Amino acid sequence: MERIGKKHYKKIGCILTIALLAVFAAGCEKAADRNTVYLASAGPADRIEGEFKNGITIAIDEINQSDYLEGKTIQVDYYDDSRDLTTGIKIAQKLAEQTDKYSAVIGHWNASISIPAATIYNHAGLLAITPMVSSPKLTIPSKDYIFRTVPTDADEAQKIAGYAAEKGFENIAVCYIDSDYGTGLCDEFEKAASERSISIIDTHTNFINREEFEKQYDKWQALDIDAVFVSDSLPNAVELINLIRDKDAGLPILSAGGFSFEDVVSLAGENSNNITYVALYYPDQQLDSLIAFNQKYKEVYGEEPTSFLASKGYECVYLIAKGIKETGSPSSKVIAEYLHTMKPWQGVFNTYNFKENGDPQGMELFIVEVKDGKYTYLQ
Fold first, then answer.
1. What is the mean pLDDT of residues 357-376?
2. N or C of the chain: less Cβ packing under 10 Å?
3. Residue 141: which residues within 8 A CB-CB, separation 6 or more?
4. CB-based contacts of 299: which residues, under 8 Å, 6+ apart?
5. Does residue 139 come out as left (phi exceeding 0), alpha (psi in the -120 to 50 range) or beta?
6. What ranges in the chain are assigned the alpha helix state H?
7. For residues 311 and 258, what is the distance between their CA atoms, to the nearest angstrom?
């Protein structure tokens, strides 16, 4: 048997010490991980940055500083999908491979990305809550791990079609953007209009130039249209609004929730007159939850939020945190099961509980009329 010298003993001792330190460090790291709940926020940076991210930050600070999760803290990592399908899918695949790290994803923002990403997340067992996507295709068929915090295109279409019927509109032209959002909303509006005996006398997408639009407008005039429904979102729809207003300053323009993300008057100026759309919130609601949130936001950022994006970021974080608090588990599976059965919870604007397919139920929508640079909210 070979005799081991003192130098060898020292060498082995050093190796064992290093190994033990490594194990200790790994143990500390795992302990730290167990006490930190990681969330991912995925979407276009130009939408997330600003009020939405500010709302997330307020929620995280409240949760972490108040020990809401009894020893656990929340951290959010941000991923920019740039509204690009390839980038968005790569992000979804990357997050789906890290279910041991992430408890949930807040995102994405575009239907064209969210719908395929939802399949990836659901297959991986990773909870995903989208703050903005309204396409019914997101939750058809239903998926165990996918939720949204906004009503669907079908809900919005019913709301604006009801308004059109009340106004006595009988003939409506539809212009839609050739995207998942545009085509999906167009289909839902046509169904809702048909249920009210409103005729969709023309449907068109993506005018190539002014000449093409003018030919289409002449057709509208011949068919005696009462209004145009724009199946698009701002700011993209401003170009079409300007084309319509160059021909007719008073023709009613209708749309849905995609118009509620931006300041219509600032973007379209005088051409915003006689635009009516669906809004997901009413900023002057006298809700204690809204008043308290606006006050918190002002204390941190020096002014009240100008849109509902801040509240959406705040609410998404709290929905996930509430699931963790009530179940005692940061597991995607456990949180998702909780959200499916949770009792109504009062957020900033809305009371949340979810249908079996992950859609919110009972959320109120508002009609907004823009006239002479002013907004009038109708319930």
1. 94
2. N
3. 357
4. none
5. alpha
6. 6-34, 45-48, 51-66, 85-96, 111-124, 153-166, 180-195, 210-222, 238-247, 264-268, 288-301, 309-327, 332-341
7. 17
Structure tokens at 248: 């007719």
Query: Over 80: is that where the pLDDT of 270 sits?
Result: yes
List phi, psi (to 5°) of 278: -90, 135
pTM score of the predicted model: 0.85
Peptide bond into 141 cis (omega under 30): yes
Largest pairwise CA distance in the chain: 106
The C-alpha angle 227, 228, 234, rounded to 5 degrees, equals: 135
Please name the helix (run of DSSP H) or strand (run of DSSP E) that holds residue 375, with its range, or none.
strand 374-378
Question: Token pair of 374, please?
Answer: 């002013």
CA contacts within 13 A on the Cβ side of 166: 8
Chain position carrying tokens 């597991």: 331
pLDDT tens by residue, 285-294: 889 999 999 9
Distance separating alpha carbons of residues 30 and 291, to the nearest angstrom: 40
What b/e readout covers 218-232, taking b as 16+ CB neighbours within 10 angstroms? eebeeeebbbbbbbb
Compute the residue count for the chain: 379
Is-contact 276 370, C-beta < 8 A?
Answer: yes
Three-state SS string over 15-51 comes to HHHHHHHHHHHHHHHHHHHHCEEEEEEEECHHHHCCH
